[in-house]
């Protein structure tokens, strides 16, 4: 059985899936800590629906899905921020409005253009279909996201726990919120290939919640979240090697099981 696991590396499409999946898992878990602690985790779900609509348009027009979707999702994240800050529409309502509208537009485009598109792959992921160009692009963008997170680590930490204190000190918190939104948008677009529009938010939410059950400091939660996210992805892809389950759904179920285990461990350690 051990040898058969290593046989996975004989297939280029699986190697590409491993490289991209690990990169996306790291990005999603890093951003997830901030999004969950700021109680903005559902933004990822809303942006994934926007990404679905944008990718549907890109594919129907035979354009590059990632390059076309990324700026649209980033602009949508800005729109959510503005609607939340300067209108009577609350954050969750703004997310619901944009998410449902984007999903509907994407579905209409797919049916009206008559393009032969595998809708299920966009809803639930199709990481095994990654091309060499998409792999290089995904890894490059993932490296950029991780680099920005590391460079702005202290500011992201501060704005996560006490944004009002930063404002009182004259810090321009809006810029850092924009940076977080951009990084989240990019991660969502990349994650579409891994788990699809309906499941990408799980990559952002699950690892952080799992890590918080055991770890107590911000840094330990960040590290724990990354480790959990990568291990869950690897476990999911290994299970998929033996059992013909949808890869995105398998990874989410593995994350769910890990969460339940971490909750149990957390209760035992408290005692």
Topology, pairings included?
Blueprint: H1 2-6, H2 12-37, H3 42-60, H4 65-86, H5 91-113, H6 119-124, H7 132-151, H8 153-161, H9 163-168, H10 173-195, H11 200-212, H12 218-242, H13 247-270
Radius of gyration: 19 Å
Shape: globular
Give the biggest beta sheet.
Answer: none
Number of strand segments = 0
User: CATH class of the domain at 10-198, please?
Assistant: Mainly Alpha
- According to CATH, the fold-level topology of the domain at 10-198 is ABC transporter involved in vitamin B12 uptake, BtuC
Structural class: mainly alpha
Please provide the ordered H/E string of secondary-structure elements: HHHHHHHHHHHHH
N- and C-termini, Cα separation: 39 Å
CATH architecture grouping of the domain at 10-198: Orthogonal Bundle
Q: List the uncertain runs.
A: none
Number of helical segments?
13
In CATH, the homologous superfamily of the domain at 10-198 goes by the name ABC transporter involved in vitamin B12 uptake, BtuC
């Amino acid at each position: 059985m051990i040898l058969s696991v290593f046989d996975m590396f004989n297939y280029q499409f699986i190697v590409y899936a491993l490289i991209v999946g690990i990169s996306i898992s790291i990005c999603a878990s890093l951003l997830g800590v901030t999004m969950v602690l700021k109680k903005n985790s559902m933004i990822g779900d809303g942006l994934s629906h926007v990404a679905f609509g944008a990718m549907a348009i890109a594919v129907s027009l035979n354009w590059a899905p990632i390059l076309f979707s990324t700026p649209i999702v980033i602009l949508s994240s800005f729109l959510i921020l503005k609607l939340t800050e300067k209108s009577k529409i609350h954050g969750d309502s703004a997310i619901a409005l944009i998410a449902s509208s984007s999903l509907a537009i994407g579905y209409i485009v797919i049916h009206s253009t008559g393009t032969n598109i595998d809708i299920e792959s966009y809803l639930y992921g199709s990481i095994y279909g990654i091309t060499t160009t998409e792999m290089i692009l995904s890894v490059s963008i993932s490296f950029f996201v991780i680099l920005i997170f590391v460079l702005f680590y202290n500011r992201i930490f501060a704005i996560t726990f006490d944004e009002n204190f930063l404002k009182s000190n004259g810090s321009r918190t809006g810029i850092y919120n924009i940076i977080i939104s951009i990084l989240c948008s990019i991660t969502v677009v990349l994650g579409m290939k891994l788990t699809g529009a309906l499941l990408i938010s799980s990559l952002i939410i699950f690892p952080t919640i799992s890590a918080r059950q055991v770890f107590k400091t911000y840094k330990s939660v960040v590290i724990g979240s990354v480790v959990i996210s990568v291990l869950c992805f690897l476990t999911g892809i290994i299970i998929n090697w033996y059992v013909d389950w949808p890869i995105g759904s398998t990874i989410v179920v593995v994350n769910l099981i890990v969460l339940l285990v971490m909750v149990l461990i957390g209760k035992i350690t408290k005692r």
